[in-house]
Amino acid sequence: LRVIVRRIFALKHAIAVPTNPNILVAETIIGCREHQALSLNVAKRALSIEGDLKKGLTKAKAMIFSDPRPKTRAKAEQLREKLLSLNIVESCSLTVSGQQNDMPEEWGDKVIIALHRGRGFIGLTEPMGSVPAWLTTLASTLSSHGERCRGLILFGNPYLDDKFKEHSTSTGDFVIKAYSESDASIEAVIERMIEAKKV
């Protein structure tokens, strides 16, 4: 153990990682204009996009499924407002997992958006009412009715399209994976959607 600890400290010293970082200095960096620009650039480069985004967004309606964590729910609500105010979609409903939500009457022909961190769920059975459970039910329902979604947009958990494919014949015209629920990732997806609609 001592050998490992020595190696870690030697590496920190070699790359000048402070052993006692100044929180006040960090706060002036995180959230500053340069930091936000860098975060957005990284988020844009990290996006994975498959399929025809323009086709999937034409006269599209959307459904957002969100984890119940307060920060994630707030981000989901802000995303919904942006999608509507920027006329990216014609309508957009929001379902928060773990709450008493009415099942949407119309499931087909919509862009499905999920905000869900995989932590705590990978390799486990998802509880009823969780985002993965909702998507499983949705995929099964669409498949049994011979319907399909317009596309999938996944924030945080990149494996939800596999779960969707297990229960449905189609993930729609496109799949976007953002790998994060960060503000930068959400902004990167919105910018990409706007670009696709302009083409």
Number of beta strands: 6
Query: Helix fraction?
Result: 40-55%
Low-confidence stretches: 121-126
Computed Rg: 20 Å
- Mean pLDDT rating: 82
> What overall form do the CA principal axes indicate?
globular
How many helices in DSSP terms? 8
Distance, first to last CA: 58 Å
Structural class category: alpha/beta
What fraction strand? 15-25%
> Major beta sheet, specifics?
6 strands, mixed
Q: Can you give a write-up of this model?
A:
With 199 residues, the chain is an alpha/beta fold. The protein has helices spanning 2-14, 23-29, 33-46, 53-57, 70-85, 131-144, 160-167, 183-198; strands spanning 48-51, 61-66, 92-96, 110-116, 151-156, 174-177. A six-stranded mixed sheet has the order 1-6-5-4-2-3, with helices on both faces.
Q: What keyword list fits this structure?
A:
globular, single chain, 8 helices, six-stranded mixed β-sheet
